[in-house]
């Protein structure tokens, strides 16, 4: 590692970390195949043609195949009826080649996403969004755990080891990121504060954090004077800054340039949390496959 005279935060390399997780997934897939003739399969359902979602779905499918798993992609028209989508979920639930099901969110307004998620078989819910998995996580039981917070937790544990007693502040309370992140940090013995759009004194609350997780969806909202010196900053945000004709620029929810000199460690956007999310999706698919077949799941890839 390089040392600098002027203090600059360590940049956490999510790409390298994600590659090491994919390697572990790939090793376990080989084992399942050679010892049990099982190939884990992941089905991804995309409704509509949102360009960003199409990129994610393509990346997921490619990486799924690269680790030796089967990938099933289902692209449905924006106007698809809720009942057609629910019928597809039932088919995937029954398909023995499918061990993981992910329905890309958000869904169009005419579809009730809670209804769709709750139709997914609990043991195939690799996003960890089904109420049973949410409840199991909150109750401290084995659960399929949402991929983005799981990726954040794995990076934090790699960096810090034991997280006991750390002050964690999460900006954002969505079901996808903020809430499950809070559960995972609580489970790992942090003191957890969650702030959101109705919170007061957000800046002052953030200043207390040893671990600051930003999952807001507001470009560069977290500024240098929100961050305690030496804090670990995890930037979940993916914001596309449109630029006439030119390729859109991706920025996080953290003002990286100004925060980096203050923080002890920080994740970049792109190349931080995003690649970890996909790696954890693959890990969850192997875990789901092992549980469905009553086999030992890989070590060290859970919460
Ligand atoms: N890297 C990755 O793998 C992933 C990245 N993302 C990105 O992370 C970001 C958050 O995603 P997601 O959780 O789904 O977003 P949501 O829009 O579902 O939730 C945003 C949260 O931020 C809160 N919020 C909004 N504005 C403010 C504000 N001004 N001050 C304080 N809190 C505020 C909202 O509060 P309230 O509840 O009161 O509305 C809400 O709780 C997005 O940029 C998304 O693209 C998401 C998933 C995965
Ligand atoms: N059911 C469901 N599960 C999800 O996990 C889910 C979802 N719906 N809807 C959308 C959000 C967003 N999300 C991302 C995944 C990977 C990157 C990612 O790989 N990002 C790259 C950059 C990719 C790019 O260039 O656009 C990076 O940060 O380096 C980003 C965002 C998962 N989500
Ligand atoms: Mg909806």
TrEMBL record:
Signal peptide: none annotated. Keywords: Amino-acid biosynthesis, Histidine biosynthesis, Hydrolase, Methionine biosynthesis, Multifunctional enzyme, NADP, One-carbon metabolism, Oxidoreductase, Purine biosynthesis. It catalyses: (6R)-5,10-methenyltetrahydrofolate + H2O = (6R)-10-formyltetrahydrofolate + H(+); (6R)-5,10-methylene-5,6,7,8-tetrahydrofolate + NADP(+) = (6R)-5,10-methenyltetrahydrofolate + NADPH. GO terms for biological process: L-histidine biosynthetic process; methionine biosynthetic process; purine nucleotide biosynthetic process; tetrahydrofolate interconversion. GO terms for cellular component: cytosol. Its EC number is 1.5.1.5, 3.5.4.9. Catalyzes the oxidation of 5,10-methylenetetrahydrofolate to 5,10-methenyltetrahydrofolate and then the hydrolysis of 5,10-methenyltetrahydrofolate to 10-formyltetrahydrofolate. This is Bifunctional protein FolD. It comes from Cohaesibacter gelatinilyticus.
């Amino acid at each position: 590692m390089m040392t600098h005279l002027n203090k600059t935060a360590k940049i956490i390399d999510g790409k390298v970390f994600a590659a090491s997780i994919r390697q572990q997934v790939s090793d376990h897939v080989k084992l399942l195949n050679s010892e049990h003739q099982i190939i884990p399969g992941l089905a991804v359902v995309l409704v509509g043609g949102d360009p960003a979602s199409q990129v994610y779905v393509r990346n997921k499918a490619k990486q799924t195949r690269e680790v030796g798993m089967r990938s099933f992609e289902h692209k449905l028209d924006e106007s698809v009826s809720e009942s057609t989508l629910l019928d597809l979920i039932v088919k995937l639930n029954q398909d023995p080649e499918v061990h993981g099901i992910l329905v890309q969110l958000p869904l169009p307004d005419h579809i009730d996403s809670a209804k769709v998620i709750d139709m997914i078989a609990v043991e195939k819910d690799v996003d960890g969004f089904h109420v049973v998995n949410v409840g199991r996580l909150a109750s401290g039981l084995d659960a399929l755990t949402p991929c983005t917070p799981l990726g954040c937790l794995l990076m934090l544990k790699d960096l810090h080891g034991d997280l006991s007693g750390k002050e964690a502040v999460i900006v954002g309370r969505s079901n996808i990121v903020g809430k499950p992140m809070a559960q995972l940090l609580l489970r790992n013995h942090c003191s957890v504060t969650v702030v959101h759009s109705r919170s007061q004194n957000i800046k002052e609350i953030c200043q207390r954090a040893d671990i600051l997780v930003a999952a807001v969806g507001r470009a560069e909202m977290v500024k240098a004077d929100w961050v305690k010196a030496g804090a670990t900053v995890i930037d979940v945000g993916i914001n596309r800054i449109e630029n006439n004709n030119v390729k859109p620029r991706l920025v996080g929810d953290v003002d990286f340039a100004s925060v980096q000199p203050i923080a002890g460690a920080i994740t970049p956007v792109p190349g931080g949390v995003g690649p970890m999310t996909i790696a954890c999706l693959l890990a969850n698919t192997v875990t789901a496959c092992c549980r469905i077949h009553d086999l030992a799941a890989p070590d060290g890839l859970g919460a």
